[in-house]
Amino acid sequence: MADFQISLEILGISLLCTFIALGLLLRERWASRRIKAKLVTVSEEKDALSLYDANTGLLSRNGIETALRHWVDRADADGSAFCALFLAIDEFKSHNQAFGQEFGDRLLKLTGQRLEALLPEGSDLSCVNDGEFVLLLSGNSSVGLDAARQLLRRLAEPLQHQHGSTVLTCSMGVAVYPEHGARSRLLVNASIAARLVSRQGGGDYCLYDPQMSADLREQTLLVADLRQAIDKGQLELYFQPKVDAKTLHITAAEALLRWHHPERGYVSPAVFIPLAERNGLIGAIGNWVIDEACRVAGHWRALGLRMRVAVNISGYQMRQDDLVPRIEAALTRHQLQPARFTCEITESVAMEDTKGTQRAFDQMRAMGLHVSIDDFGTGYSSLATLRSLPASELKVDRAFVSDLAESEDARSIAASIIGLAKALNFKVVAEGVETQQQCDLLMRMGCDELQGYLFSRPIPAAEMERLALAEPSEHSGPGFSDSLFNATVVADLNDLPSR
Question: Which chain regions cross the lipid bilayer (predicted)?
Answer without folding.
Answer: 6-26
